Amino acid sequence: MLLRLGIFLPLVWYLITMLLNHYGVFHFSIDWNRFIFQFFIALTVVTVSFAYRTGHLTDRLTFPFPIHNLFLLGAKNTLVVFRLVGLWWILASFYFLIKYKI
User: Is 35 part of a structural domain of the chain?
Assistant: First the structure.
């Protein structure tokens, strides 16, 4: 559930704010919008990629990442790719904050 919320909420935020920007309802910086989208998804994915081992056994085989990634890469490689992309997005987010002197 945490993975779903950690990806779904930033995605909904991004879509709604981009639509509101497009229709002139209010102006929200596209750079900040991208930061929010990338940073929170990256935190979620990196956290899950490291914390998946703390899960418990279930009767049904489940995996929190999209199934197409498992078929293409396998579970271990999917975790590595998600971790690396997530870390890259986190570093890009820190660069953004430094650039804007936050």
Answer: yes
Q: Are 38 and 93 in contact (CB under 8 A)?
A: yes
Number of domains in the chain: 1
Residue 74's region, left for phi above 0, alpha for psi from -120 to 50, else beta, is left
pTM above 0.85, yes or no: no
The whole domain housing 14 covers 2-52+62-99
Give tens-digit pLDDT for 28-51. 899 999 999 999 999 998 998 888
For residue 57, tell me if it sits in a domain: no
Q: Which of 80, 83, 9 is nearest to 45 (CA)?
A: 83
In which residue are the tokens 């199934």 written? Answer: 67
